[in-house]
Design brief:
This protein is globular. It starts with a helix and ends in a 5-residue tail after the last helix. The protein contains 17 helices and no strands. By secondary structure, it is mainly alpha-helical.
Length: 326
């Protein structure tokens, strides 16, 4: 990316680069502005963090009211604990698109669903241009307002509309790469090199497919985010066991999306901590909803008290096990 600015080279053609076009564009802007320094990155991260936290807080307002702001504060605090782990990581930058998509598709909203489906498609089209696998849980977002009637005509229509939106940024990017004369080079990297890269384990070695399956069950689950993963599993199991008493659909939406992003790093068998950053966003949401379990999950007072104690334990464990110097 720096070469594009310093040496006036074309991406993909004049330099071998696996970053997707939107990442390349962001890097180009950063280097062009002369802010490719750690302090500048930190300052640039502040509005990004604020936007991500605000989107999550607004999404939880339907269940928590003014307490939805607690998520924003909790996520900001958690991000500060992570420190350099998140600084300008693609998995974290993608949350600037994933978090608004989550807000648009929350199941408590019933107005302008067509517009919401289109915009969600556009957002996930942009996510693909940052890191394609992070768009895999997109159907969970788009179908959330229609659950459990996901095979009805309105739901399928929303999927079709979202695909149109999805095609807009993809199509514009294709046209731009063609105009730059680098499409063939980009497609070669995407179709030839990246499959080889994804075929590696986390130790950058190639193994048989059957052997690679062992990476899915090798501890620690979710890397350094295993306390958060444990919390999400408890959160989901509690909803399944007490679904008749649950008073809102939003907790189920959070749980399903969190599990979706927990699964994404395992699809490539590369379970580095920063690959779980989108999961950590939704995992933090789950813990906040668990803290108010009497309000969000229909929990009895004794059960709500036990869940609060569990949240305190899991937060302490998470702070203890995470390595902020990663």
């Amino acid at each position: 990316s720096a070469a594009s600015v310093v040496y006036k080279r074309q991406p993909y053609r004049d330099m071998f680069e696996t970053s997707m076009p939107l990442v390349m564009l962001a890097h180009f802007w950063i280097y062009s502005a002369g802010i490719a320094k750690d302090p500048a990155f930190f300052l640039l991260s502040i509005p990004i963090l604020a936007a991500i936290a605000a989107a999550g807080g607004f999404a939880l307002r339907s269940s928590l009211g003014k307490h939805g702001l607690l998520f924003g504060l909790a996520y900001v605090a958690f991000t500060l604990v992570l420190g350099a782990l998140i600084l300008m990581q693609r998995d974290w930058l993608a949350l600037t698109l994933i978090a608004p998509a989550f807000l648009l598709c929350r199941p408590t909203v019933r107005d302008r669903l067509t517009t919401r489906a289109f915009l969600t498609g556009v957002l996930f089209g942009l996510v693909v241009l940052i890191k394609p696998q992070l768009a895999l849980p997109a159907p969970l977002f788009i179908l959330a307002p229609y659950w459990p009637n996901i095979l009805t005509r309105p739901a399928l229509s929303a999927v079709s509309i979202s695909l149109v939106g999805f095609a807009v940024p993809i199509g514009l990017t294709w046209w731009s790469l063609v105009q730059l004369g680098v499409w063939d080079d980009f497609w070669f990297i995407v179709s030839q090199y990246i499959p080889l890269y994804v075929g590696q384990t986390g130790e950058h070695s190639y193994v048989a497919a059957a052997q690679k399956l062992l990476t899915f069950v090798r501890p620690p689950i979710a890397g350094g985010f295993w306390p958060l993963a444990l919390g999400v599993l408890v959160f989901v199991v509690f909803q399944i066991r007490h679904r008749r008493r649950a008073t809102f659909q939003l907790p189920a939406y959070v749980g399903v999306v969190a599990l979706g992003y927990l699964a994404v790093p395992y699809l490539s068998g590369q379970m580095w901590d920063y690959h779980f950053l989108p999961f950590a966003f939704f995992g933090t949401m789950a813990l906040v909803l668990m803290w108010f379990a009497d309000q969000t999950l229909g929990a009895t007072k004794p059960a709500a008290s036990r869940l609060k104690a569990l949240v305190i334990l899991l937060v302490a464990l998470q702070i203890w096990v995470i390595d902020p110097s990663y």
